[in-house]
Design goal:
- By secondary structure, this protein is of the alpha/beta class.
- The chain is built from 17 helices and eleven strands.
- It has a seven-stranded parallel β-sheet with strand order 4-3-2-1-5-6-7, sandwiched between helices. Strands 9-8-10-11 form a four-stranded mixed β-sheet, with helices on one face.
- Strand 5 (96-99), helix 5 (107-115) and strand 6 (119-122) form a beta-alpha-beta unit.
- The structure holds nicotinamide-adenine-dinucleotide and magnesium ion (MG).
- Magnesium ion binds at residues 150-152, 230.
Length: 396
């Protein structure tokens, strides 16, 4: 029986993970549930899944969480604050951690789970983008395993030889891998010109054609920054050279990514666009369980379409490649600037097209430094956020 901590239980990935877990009461148990500030949603999840511990990240809400749980007649431990989140990720109540917090806020708890040798099911792509080598080193030192949940990386993991482990010693080229091909839906604005994107609202940007996701990743999908972060994620997880990672737009989101081998074979993983497939694969790995996902009916979906990405309109993808080529902490700077710019866009204070401008300005202002340790990286993240906020203030 796996004891699973869901960090970010009230989110889109958290909800999908709990759906899969609830299908197999003899196999998985959700022992720890965490949320940022959504007390009512967390109490509801506790009532349904009966965890041993509920953590609310905002300490000001701990008393309210305790009161509401008691009123519901639930006996589960309660904790709050970031230290409690980290302790829960590393603690003895779980052997498996679903890292599903959004943004850099997920880094500390993801690292803690890795250091403690948990089975780390990684959805929080921002943590590997920021701290790739440090996170993989923590997995190696902790002696656990990292299984990618991001659908593209989960697909690639499924198409690689069985002996392959993210951050492990199996070399892609020695395994005959020539290229990794990440598919992208193209987001809600595929095919639009820059002029057509000038007046986009947050509601339009969050309406993804194929996937239902949190608001931040939905905006990232609309700008193609999500794919940029995923290129960086693939570089770290699979040890692939920048030039060996290609992005291919595939509007139906049925082919989740592909691996091209030197003999010309291209292996792909297909499925309906439902995150429960990747989550179930990661939860049960190396076994398989029914994820509750509709079977794929390819004949009804034909023909499948593919096209190259439009890097001139969707500049965020080009900026992510640029940051990855610059190396060091440039991806962390890119990520921090993007988080601030997306927040401003969602708040209605920054136009859609200016998200890329803010990211580019911060990357220019802060040339990359080598990554030394997590403290220095945290400081650079803070400096990049400050630079982005100043650029935003000056622009308004
Ligand atoms: P979401 O916004 O739906 O949920 C985020 C969760 O994180 C919530 O439970 C929230 O309470 C928690 N959270 C937010 N800020 C926090 C903070 N400061 N401290 C502690 N907890 C905090 O997001 P999501 O769409 O589920 O995405 C989660 C992560 O998974 C992101 O990194 C995203 O890029 C990645 N991901 C999501 C999908 C998807 O289909 N939604 C697919 C692939 C990868
Ligand atoms: Mg993805």
């Amino acid at each position: 029986m796996y004891k699973v901590a869901i960090l970010g239980a009230t989110g889109s990935i958290g909800g999908n993970a709990l759906d899969v877990i609830a299908r197999y009461p003899g196999r998985f148990r959700a022992t720890v549930l965490t949320a940022h500030r959504e007390v009512a949603a967390l109490v509801e999840l506790c009532a349904r899944h009966q965890p041993d511990l509920a953590v609310i990240a905002d300490p000001a809400l701990e008393a309210e969480l305790s009161r509401r749980l008691a009123a519901t007649g639930l006996h589960c431990e309660v904790a709050s604050g970031h230290a409690a989140l980290t302790a829960a990720a590393a603690g003895g109540l779980c052997d498996t951690v679903v890292a599903a917090i959004v943004g850099a806020a997920g880094l500390e708890s993801t690292l803690a789970a890795a250091r403690a040798g948990k089975r780390l099911l990684l959805a929080n792509k921002e943590s590997i983008v920021m701290a790739g080598p440090l996170l993989l080193e923590a997995v190696a030192v902790g002696g656990g395993v990292l299984i990618p949940v991001d659908s593209e990386h989960n697909a690639i993991f499924q198409c690689l030889p069985d002996r392959f482990r993210p951050g492990g010693r199996t070399d892609l080229r020695a395994s005959g891998v020539h290229r990794l091909i990440l598919t992208a839906s193209g987001g809600p604005f595929r095919g639009r010109t820059r002029a057509e994107l000038a007046q986009i609202t947050p509601e339009q940007a969050c309406k993804h054609p194929n996937w239902v996701m949190g608001r931040k990743i939905s905006v990232d999908s609309a700008t193609l920054m999500n794919k940029g972060l995923e290129v960086i994620e693939a570089h770290h997880l699979f040890g692939a050279a920048v030039d060996a990672i290609e992005v291919l737009v595939h509007p139906q989101s049925l082919v989740h990514s592909l691996v091209e081998y030197v003999d010309g074979s291209v292996l792909a993983q297909l499925g309906n666009p439902d995150m429960r497939t990747a989550i179930a694969h990661a939860l049960a790995w190396p076994e398989r369980v029914d994820a509750g996902v509709e079977p794929l009916n390819l004949a009804a979906c034909a023909p499948l379409a593919f096209e190259p990405p439009d890097l001139a309109t969707f500049r965020c993808l080009a900026l992510a490649y640029q940051a990855l080529r610059a190396g060091g902490d440039a991806p962390a700077i890119l990520n921090a600037a993007n988080e601030i710019a997306v927040e401003a866009f969602l708040a209605g204070t920054l136009p859609f097209l200016s998200i890329a401008d803010v990211v580019e300005a911060v990357l220019t202002e802060l040339p990359s430094h080598a990554v030394v340790d997590i403290q220095t990286l945290g400081e650079r993240d803070r400096v990049a956020r400050e630079a982005a906020r100043r650029i935003l203030r000056n622009a308004c």
